[in-house]
Amino acid sequence: MCACVGSTHKMPRLAFSDGFSKWGVALLRCGRIEGSAGRVQSSYGTGGDVTRGKRRNEILLHFTTSNILAECALLWSHLGLAYVSNPVSPQAVNAVCRMRPNTRLSPGMPRVYGHVFFKQSGPNEKLSVTFKLYGLPVNSQQPRAMHIHEYGDLSKGCGSTGGHYNPLGVNHPQHPGDFGNFVPVNGKICQSLDFSATLFGRLSILGRSVVIHEGEDDLGRGGNVESLLNGNAGGRLACCVIGLANPQN
């Protein structure tokens, strides 16, 4: 995949491999690749140095400084991939997702707001997720399903977030972002849980989305194809894109 490597060498490098090289031009034209110090130098739009690596489909993007941290910018969701490179440092990573109602919501449906907070102390640690959502019917205890979806694309409301994030190609409810069902109390969902998803490495959920659904997740027991894809959870009430949190907050 894509790794960002810092070193004491004069020219640290960012390598796109395993078929990612074709995105290098688009990324650089968008001006979205940057290190903690200096800017990426590229002959594609930013004026600098791009060379092809020894492996097939590998491009090396050379930085002008030697103190590049192991973090690179996210790929814009409209390019169809969720990330370029994600934190590989053992330090804790925090992320946040600002929940807003689906812009294609039918009249009379609940308008859900709030935040979903993510914290992971290291790549081998559990991901802690805290849900703070409100706007559901006060007198209803209808369970609501929540999942991580593949794309951080809200251009067509929650419908453009794609299906469940399923990097390993397994059946629902074994996807890393299958959060399950939540029963609201007084119209609110306030709960913290640990999950197997990660904020690190090539399976990072950074740049993906969280969707809260109209109905209950059947947890793969519905007896049809949709059950093994999405748990027959119904329409999409609200959604948000998972992004790195400001460490000062």
Keywords for this entry:
Immunoglobulin-like, 14 strands, metal-binding, nine-stranded antiparallel beta sheet, mainly beta, 249 residues, EC 1.15.1.1, SOD-like_Cu/Zn_dom_sf, SOD_Cu/Zn_BS
- Percent of residues in helical segments? under 10%
What is the approximate shape? globular
Beta-strand portion reads 25-35%
Average pLDDT for all residues: 75
Helix count, DSSP H or I runs of 4 or more residues: 2
Q: Cα distance, first to last residue?
A: 31 Å
- What would CATH call the class of the largest domain? Mainly Beta
Q: Any idea what the CATH superfamily of the largest domain is called?
A: Superoxide dismutase, copper/zinc binding domain
Brief characterization of the structure:
The chain is mostly beta strands and 249 residues long. It has 2 helices and 14 strands; from the N terminus they run ββαββββββββββαββ. The protein starts with a strand and ends in a 5-residue tail after the last strand.
